[in-house]
Design a protein that fits this description.
single chain; 350 residues; alpha/beta; Rossmann fold; five-stranded parallel β-sheet; two-stranded parallel ribbon
């Protein structure tokens, strides 16, 4: 079966073009956001695209790259382009959970009495930059768990709802070891995508020099607001995933587990633990956004494959041999994608 199967024209259930019009508006706004971001961020097209895919799929992002590649600049620029409440948390070893969530303080009332009042922390934003997240202790990192998964914050007996849309974008440096703490697996799993930020090309580096050392006074414009983003997130979920494409995504997830009978030899040798069910959800939602950007209302095999790397690279844990051999998760994903067939052998037999 062709990987491009499912390129039918967009039509709603009544045969009209309502869905097509909504998807056209989505693609136009997506392009406008990219254009505004490009006014500030040089190159990094794949990084920007993956970040926006996660945004419209309703997921969080972890950006990993060496210092100076514009990770923080990208998130800050998105905060300017999107009409959302932007908040920044600079993670340090002495940062405490209350510095993120907020705390209760004693307030004097007009009648002379006192009462506790909750002062909200920076997590109560809509686009939250967790800068250098791996510099904080696991105790502090865990303060993000409930917010990222349930979009709520519990303080004492009170539960506070975060304003939608809510997106955490974290950055980390893969080279620095002193004063850093690896992110727990439970924390990593709550990021929809882990996006590797590459070093700029010669041409891109030249443009960076021009913009940062010459006069360059360009400001990005606001493009879309929160309700529009929520509407697009709902639109994306309306797109269709055919049973054979869904099964392909499931088999990719199973192939990342060394104890599964279908996993390739490289997985059995070098992987300690495979991707979680959240990885399958990320494949589906990311694939739906890619389908929408390609003017299709259903997800193709190519959409799943393109989403596999950012969705799964942080959900696979290498064993000792894999670490000792210097294997990368992307290298193992290359072989998984190559060896897992689009249609299962048992489906062909039937």
């Amino acid at each position: 079966m062709s990987s491009s199967e499912g390129n039918a024209p967009l039509r709603d259930e009544n045969g009209g073009s309502g869905l097509e019009a909504r998807l056209s508006a989505f693609r136009e706004d997506f392009s406008r956001v990219r254009t505004e971001v490009a006014k500030i961020v040089v190159g990094q097209d794949n990084v920007v695209e993956s970040t926006l895919i996660a945004l419209f799929a309703g997921g969080h992002c972890l950006l990993e790259g060496v210092p100076g590649l514009g990770k923080t600049l990208l998130v800050r620029t998105l905060g300017e382009v999107l009409d959302l409440k932007y908040s920044r948390i600079q993670f340090t070893p002495d940062l405490m959970p209350a510095d993120i969530i907020g705390t209760r303080i004693v307030m004097d009332r007009d009648d002379g009495s006192r009462q506790f009042e909750f002062q909200r922390g920076p997590i109560f934003g809509q686009i939250v930059l967790a800068d250098e997240i791996n510099r904080a202790t696991p105790k502090t990192q865990s303060a993000l768990l409930e917010a990222m998964q349930e979009h709520t914050v519990t303080v004492g007996r009170d539960r506070h709802q975060l304003e939608e849309p809510f997106l955490v974008m974290a950055t980390q440096n893969p080279l620095e070891m002193d004063g850093t703490y690896p992110l727990p697996e439970a924390q990593l799993d709550r990021f929809m995508f882990k996006i590797n930020v590459p070093f700029p090309t010669r041409e891109e580096l030249g443009e960076v020099m021009s913009r940062t050392t010459d006069v360059y006074d360009v400001k990005p414009e606001e493009v879309i607001d929160g309700p529009t983003i929520i509407g697009y997130q709902e639109l994306v979920r309306e797109l269709i995933v055919a049973p054979h494409v869904r099964d392909y995504a499931i088999r990719l997830i199973l192939a990342t587990h060394p104890d599964d009978v279908t996993s390739p030899a490289i997985v059995k040798r070098f992987v300690h633990y495979g991707a979680s069910p959240r990885g399958a959800q990320a494949l589906m939602l990311g694939g739906k956004v890619r389908a929408a950007l390609d003017s299709r209302y259903n997800v193709s095999f190519d959409d799943v494959r393109a989403t596999a790397y950012p969705a799964l690279r942080h959900r696979m844990i290498l064993n000792f041999e894999g670490e000792a051999e210097g294997k990368s998760v992307d290298e193992i994903l290359d072989e998984i994608i190559e060896l897992v067939p689009e249609v299962a052998p048992d489906a062909l037999a039937s």
